[in-house]
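Slide 14.
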Amino acid sequence: MITRRPFALALALTSLLLASPAAPARAQMCDTLAEVISTLKAPTYGFPTVWDADYGQRGRMVQFAGGVLMPEGTIMAYGLKLDEQTSQPLETGLVELNRRGRTLVEQFVPAKAGEQPVGLIRLGDRLIGVSTIRAGKNKDRHVRVSWYDRQGVYKREQIFSDPAYDYTAQAIVTAAEGKGFVVVIHAVSRKDSTDQYGILSRHGADGAQIWKRAYRPGVNNMLAGLAATDDKSYVATGKIIMDDGRMAGWILKLAHDGTILWQRTYPRGKYSVLNAGGASAKVTADGSPYLLVTGAAEPVDGKPHAVWVMEVNPLGEPLWQRYYRLRDYEFVGQDVSSRPDGRVVVVANARAADSYDPALQDHIRVLSLSPRGVMIDDQSYLNGLKAESHAVTRNASGETVVTSTILKQQKTSEEEYGPAVPVPEGTQVPPEKSLQEGWVMVVPGLDSYEDPCMRKPRR
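Slide 15: predicted structure.
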């Protein structure tokens, strides 16, 4: 058994694991190592999807920021159209895509100044999106909540603002009680940028505020994600500054009304953050859920960020944690979930450390882990030049649905972009340009799995 140790000892740990004498196969597989650092394999693209579809328009950049499953099995994506030349937001709205990649719904309205969509939820036959906008002569930041009907038609809005703080939307989730929603907000003082903290704002389905909580423990912090658990409470994740100046991962277990049941900090390496969390398949005798979280950690050896995955008990004590890294790529965990059999699925973004190296491409990783954090599968996904996931959901079949933005090459006309470029054979081809498009990808569910460490009852 390897005891807990700081992430700073990455290289020493790797040597220790490699040099240790081999243990019996069952012990190696069934012991839960407290902390392991692993090097991922180089990305291999071409893993099959159940279906995927991209959405773009000529001469327009499209970014998807959120997506929800619809009862018919389609995906409603929430996004933004930008001006190709200035990258300024033009329109926000919804696009519904079916399993054949066809666009069923396309509804856009003029965007607010500086608008950036962040997330989308479905409440019955209504869709609610959250975005960050700028307003006033100083371009102060505010949070905008927008209501849409089943066909994606915009209905109304609600603005959240503060006279002294800029508000930036981080996420929107369905309330633990199932009626209404909670918006995650990051507040920054307009007079002192070091004054920052997280806010949760709970509303009914009609937008009426039920409660609002500011989390100000006396130091700068940010809430990045929020998830409701089966016990009608929440787990919030983010980052918080430590006394030594390092940014550490942060978990808060909250009651249904946002009051803090407990909170813990997890400093790792030079910098760490927890972006998402949720309930594990594991529970205590009284039904209290264990928690899974994911994010990123920067090692002290100067190498790129690693995906950080951790399981903690109902009081926040780590059971195991894993770090996945690869030379030339910055990794960040975007979503983590548990399957009924205890396996863990992590969706991560991989960004090339050298964006000018054509051999390195931003892509999406989907990692499958055993109930004890042992790697089972590692898949890489890419469509176009780059890919970055923004929203992850799951359907009843156990499939993972990823809403993302990609970069595609589009052929252009001579009238728009000048003479065609000659190729070695002497033929003329239209020049190409790169534009962002929205991309929805559905990853197959996990195959059946029998945990080799579970003892079968004797007959």
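Speaker note: The helical segments are 10-19, 25-30, 414-417.
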